[in-house]
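Milestone M4 deliverable, item 7.
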Amino acid sequence: MKYRFLFLVISLSVLGASQGMGQRRQDFHIQYNFKPNDHFIQNDSLPNKKRSRWVNGIALGGYGLSALYMGTVWYAQEDLSTFHFFDDSHEWKQIDKMGHALGGYHSSRWMIGLYKWSGMGKNRAIIQGATAGFLAMSSIEVFDAFGESWGFSWSDVGANFVGASLAAGNQLLWNEDRIQLKVSYRRSPYAGDPEFERLFGSNYAEWLLKDYNGHTFWLSARVHSFLPEGNFKDKYPRWLNVAVGYGANGLEGGYGDPSSDWRTREYRQLYFSFDIDVRNIRTKNPYLHALLQTVSIFRIQLPAVRIDRNGSQFVWFQ
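Output delivered:
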C-alpha cells in the first residue's frame, strides 16, 4: 500500500507540473453568482497568498478540533498498548471501512474546495487537497495503533484512499462532485442498551460515531449533470439525485471468540432511493451556500427500497 501511495503522489506531482491554463483553469474556479458578486466566499481565479494563509490555518484548526473530538469521544476510555498492526478487514461487514471512505472523501473535498477558493491551479489544488484529506484520515491509524483493542489497519488506509480518490476524480473529470458519498443515521436498538454501551456509546454524540447498525452509506449520482442537453434536462430538478445505500444489521462484535455466532447473526442491507443534492440548490446567499456545502455529508432521509436476507421491503425513512 505504501508503494501505491508513493506512486500516486509522484503521478499527481507530474500532472501538477504540467498544469494547463485557459478554459480548463476557468472552469475549475467557476462558481454560482452571489450577491454581492465580489463576496469573499467567491472563488479567486488567480493565486491569492492571503487566502492561502487562511486555508492553512483553517486546515490545521479543523484537524485539531477533529482530533480533540475523537480523543474525547472515541479514545478516552480505551486502554493503551504498544504500537501494533491489526487486520480488521473482515469485521463489522465493512461498515467501519465505509466510514473511513466517507471521511477521506469529505476531508479531501473540503480541502480541494478551499484551495480552489484561494485561486490555486486545478491540478495542484486537487493534488494537495486529496493528499491532505488522505493523510488527515490516515493519521487516525496512528492513534489506533496504540489502542489495546485495535491496531494500525492497512484496510482502513485503503478505504481512506478510495474516498480521497473519489473526491479527486470528480474534480479531474468534471470540475464538480457528480458522484457523492454520504451517510444517514437512524438510532438502532443497540444504542442505549446497557449491554452494548461500551461498543456503541452512551449518548447521541457517541452513537452517531459508533452505532454501526444505524449507519447507511450512500453513493449519490447527480443526474442533472449526466443528462444530455435538451428540454428534459432543462426541466429536471438540479437537486434530485439517485442513490444506492449500504448498511448492515446484527453487528455486536465478538470476532475474537471462536464460538461466536457473528457469521450467522450479521447481514448486509442494500438500499435504492432518491437523494436531495443540497449542494446543487441554487442560491445567491453566500452563507447559505457555504452551509449547504458543509452539511451535505449527511443524506436527508427519504423513502427507500431495502433488500437483505429477509427479502425486499419499502421503508419510509432511511
